[in-house]
Design a protein that fits this description.
The complex is a heterodimer. Chain A is mainly alpha-helical. Chain A contains 3 helices and no strands. In chain A, α1 packs antiparallel against α2 and α2 runs antiparallel to α3. In chain B, α1 runs antiparallel to α2 and α2 runs antiparallel to α3. Chain B is globular. The chains are: A mainly alpha, B mainly alpha.
Chain lengths: 100, 170
């Protein structure tokens, strides 16, 4: 049987990969994908705890996290589209002004 | 033993594909690798005896959300970005450094972690007897009814927000 710590370490590694991607990448879409990675790492920790604590609450919470991720992706990508339409770029370094 | 082998394969797959997501220069390739990461995580959910979540992971994440990403990548003309040479070296060094610091902090927390308190009401064999999806559905429509309904409002707000933001002229 796989110990709980193995799942948690995997979750931590995935979360760290997401954080590094968020900090290092400049393409807004890839930054968004990094956020999805972080959300998935949190989901994995939820499911692992839910399994090892004999509770279903973690799985229900993952359900809600997925809903929030879907809403966030829809609104965020719409914002990226709107930014691209005015700035002609999705490079985060070139989008440094809210309004000009 | 078989469980350990499957976990090792899926965990290695998830980490490698996650790294490839942030290392690919082409956002389209990143999106494809992110889909593979989601599939690996769905397999891990199966190992954790959460088949309903595994299916939802594939349907909602790998299906709906990533299709949205792919549509946006194809809508935007990103030829220029692919040849973009990173100027900010220092930022990358700091990003990786603080990311690794965070990893060690997470590891320290998990290392000192031990489960205390009472176990919940749903041991795996009981959930298997009742059916995972049925247990999730029952909890969702009894104990978690209010968050479930609020979720629908959140999705409505997201739909309206996305439509208004994506309109050409507000």
């Amino acid at each position: 049987m796989v110990p709980l710590s193995a799942y948690l370490i995997l979750s931590g590694i995935l979360f760290t990969v997401g954080v590094i991607g968020f900090l290092v990448r400049r393409n807004l879409i890839v930054v968004f994908m990094s956020i999805e990675l972080m959300l998935n790492a949190a989901n994995l920790a939820f499911v692992a705890f839910s399994r090892y604590l004999n509770s279903m609450d973690g799985q229900i919470f993952v359900f809600f996290v997925m809903t929030v991720a879907a809403a966030e992706a829809a609104v965020g990508l719409a914002i990226i589209l709107a930014v691209f339409r005015t700035k002609e770029t999705v490079n985060a370094d070139e989008i440094n002004l809210m309004k000009w | 033993m078989l469980e350990v082998i499957f976990f090792a394969i899926l965990a290695a797959g998830a980490v490698v594909t996650a790294l490839l997501v942030i290392l690919q220069r082409n956002p389209m390739a990143s999106a494809i690798f992110l889909i593979l990461t989601f599939f690996c995580l769905a397999g891990i959910y199966l190992l954790l005896s959460a088949p309903f979540l595994a299916v939802i992971q594939v349907l909602v994440y790998a299906g709906a959300i990533m299709v949205l990403f792919l549509f946006v990548i194809m809508l935007l003309n990103l030829e220029k970005e692919q040849k973009f040479i990173p100027r900010v070296r220092l930022q990358k060094v700091f990003g990786v450094f603080f990311g690794l610091v965070l990893l060690f902090q997470i590891g320290a927390v998990f290392h000192s972690l031990f489960l205390t308190g009472e176990k919940g009401l749903f041991p795996p064999d009981k959930v298997a007897a009742l059916g995972n999806t049925e247990v999730v559905a029952r909890l969702l429509f009894t104990d978690f009814l209010l968050p479930f309904e609020i979720t629908s409002v959140l999705l409505l707000v997201a739909i309206i927000g996305a439509v208004i933001l994506a309109k050409r002229e507000i």
